[in-house]
Amino acid sequence: MSILSFGGEQRMAIKKDTTGKLFTLLTNNSMYQMKVDDLGFLVHTWFGKRTPIFDYSYLNVGRDRGFSGNPYIAGDNRAYSLDTLPQEFPTYGNGDYRESAVRIRYASGASSCEFRYESAQILEGKYSLPGLPAFYALKEDTADTLVITLKDSTQNVYVHLYYGVLEEKDIITRSVTVENKGESPIYLERIMSTCTDFQFGDFDFISFYGRHAMERLLSRTQVHHGIQSVGSTRGASSHHYNPFVMLAAQGTTETRGECYGFSFLYSGDFLAEAEKDQSGQTRFLMGIHPDNFCYKLDSGEAFHAPEAAMVYSAEGMEAVSHRFHRAIRNNLCRGEYKKARRPVLINNWEGTYFDFTGDKLVEMAEQAKDMGVELFVMDDGWFGKRESDNSGLGDWIVNEKKLGCTLKDLSARIHALGLKFGIWFEPECISEDSDLYRAHPDWAFKVPEKSPVRSRYQLVLDFSRKEVRDHIYNMMCNVLDNAQVEYLKWDFNRSIGDIFTTALPADRQGETAHKYILGLYEFLENLNKRYPGMLIEGCSGGGGRFDAGMLYYTPQIWTSDDTDSIERLKIQYGTSFCYPVSTMGAHVSASPNHQTGRTASLSTRATVAMAGTFGYELDPAKLTEEEKAEVRTQIETFKKYYSLIQDGTYYRLASPYENEEYTVWEFAAEDKSEALLGIVSTKLTANNLFTCIRLRGLDPNAMYRMGDKTYLGAALMEAGLPMPVPETEYQSWNLHLVKES
Ligand code: DGJ
Fold it and tell me: Which among 148, 315, 560, 677 has the fewest CB atoms less than 10 Å away?
C-alpha cells in the first residue's frame, strides 16, 4: 500500500482521493477519515494523529463472528457485517446491534432503515446551522465543510452528514440533517449528532457530574463491555452531567497519552455514550437524548440536529482543553464582550437576597465604586410581587414601591456614580402566584388533568410557543428600553417536567423539548441583536446550563451557586476541561461562606475568583476599612493581569483530586513572556513535606524573574517551583513571573 496521491476535489482541510470514495479531514494535529465501501456503506476508518494521508480502511478487518448478520447485498460474504464494521452513521434495525445514531419509524411502523452513499460535496468555509449554535470560522482560519448525503435503500429519506473542519484550531464538528422526500410522514425517534467507532484501544470515560451548587466534578472510569453513558432528561443540560466527555487512553495524564474530547453545542436533553463491543471496539455517540424525543417529519420536511465538536490530542488532556478553550473564545463566543474587557462587577444577591430597596442598592454601589468595581448588578426581587421565591415570576414589571423609584432613576443614580448597571431576569419561568399565570395558566408546561411538578415553587413557561416567548420578550424590552442597562443575567432555576404543549397534536408532543430549546435560542439571538452592547451572563441556579450551546449567546455563565472558594477549586477545575476561564463567572463572597459555613481569607477568595470573570457578591457595608483597601488592591491586580488571565494559556498544575496539599494553576502568555500562578493550600500539616510543582508553557532557555529571584524556564518546568509553606488554613498566593530580556 502506498501513500495516496490526489487528483480529486481538494480543499485545504478536506481531501477526497481519486476514486472519490475516501475522505480525509485534516487539522494541524489530527486526522479524521471515512470511506464509501464497495457496498455503498460509509465506514469510519480513522480518527487520531495526523499522518501522511493513507487509506486506513485496512484496519476494518471483517470476520464472521457468528450472530452478526450480513446485509443481503453482501451476498455470500459472511465476514461483512454492520455489527462489527466501524461506521460513520450506524442505523437502527439493520443488523448492527450496538447503539445506533439514528432510528426512524416509517409510516408502515417499521423501523429498519439502511442508509447508503449517494453523493458528497466539499465546500469552502464552515457550515452554520439554522437556529442552532455552531462554531464559526474567522477570516484567518482554514475552514472547510464536507457534506455526505446518504439515502435509505427503500424509502425516499435522505441523511446529510455535515463535517466542519477548523484546521488551525484543531476542531472537527459534526451535524446531521434528516430529510423526508417521501410522501408519507416519518417519525425520527433517535438522532445522534456524532458517532465515532474506534477499532481498538482501552479507554477511560471521563465525564463531569454533580448537583446544584457542586457542578462538574471529575469522574474517570474504565470503558467496559456494555454501555456507559451520561446525559440529561431535565430539559436543560444540567448540573448533574455536563455535555462534555473525554475518552482517554488508559494511563493518559495532563501532558501524556491520547485523548479525545467531545462537546455538544446544546442546552437541552442530551446523551453521551460509549459502548465497548464484542470485538473490543469502542463506539462513542453524542446527541439529543432519545427518551423524550420523537420528531414527525411530514413529506418535504427536514430536521437539523445540533452540532457536536471533537478534538484529538496525542499529548494528554491538557491539549484537548487548550484547543477547546481557544476555539470557544475565538470561534464560538460572539458579541462585543468576546474581546472587550468584561467589567468587574458586584452582584447584590448574597449581600441582600430579596431584602433591599433602591437606596440600599445605591449605597452598595457607592461603596463598591469606591473600591474599583465597574458594574452593579441588581439580582432577583426587583419586579412584580417578589419578596421571596414563591411568587412574581412572569410579572416583569418594576416594583417601584420596593425600589422607591423608577428603574430609570435607579440606573441613573448608579450611572451617576460612574458604574454600569445590570439586571437579573428568569424569563423561562412563572410563579403560580403571578398576574401572568392568572391570565394565562395554559402557558406553563402541564400535562392535562395532572397537577404539575413544582420546583422552587415555580413552573416552566412553554417556550416552544411563539406567543409565549413574544409576550415575555416584549415585557423584558419594555424594562430594558426604559433604563440604561449594560448587563443582563439570564437565570433558570428548575429542571423541566410535565413537558406537554397545547400547541401540538398528540403525535408531535415528542418535539416539544427540542422546540423549547430552539425557542430559547431564538429569544437569546433576538436579545443579542436588539442590545448588541449588552453583556449577557447565562445562569441556571449557578451552573445548571453550562454548555457550549449557551456560550454562543452568552460569553460567560455563572459557574455555580456555591461561592465557597475551596469548593470552587474542584468546580472550576472540572469546568476548565472544556471551558475557558473567560466563560466562568466567579465572585468573592462573604466569609463565613453562605453555602458551607467555611471561613477563608479575603485574599484566597479573590485568588480563586480571579481564575474566572471576577467580581464580588457581598454587602460592602459589612467590610472593614482594611478589607475595603484589600479589595481595591485585588481589583487593580485583576485588571493588571486581565489579558494574561483571560487570553493566556491555562494549565492545571496540581489537581484538587490528586494533591491533598495544594491546588495550583497557571496562566502563561502565548509568547511565553510572563506567567501567573494561582496557588491555594488545602491542608495544613506539621513539619510538612517538600513539594515542588512543575510549571508549563515557559521558554526553557529564558530566565524568569519572580519577586527578587530569577529561575531558568527549563528548571521551573523540569524540576519545578518549591511551594510556599502555608501559615494559615487555605492560604493562597498569586505569583507573577516575567521573562528577562
Ligand atoms: C440562582 C442564581 O444562581 C443566583 O445567583 C441568584 O441569581 C438566584 N438564582 C436568584 O433567585
Answer: 315
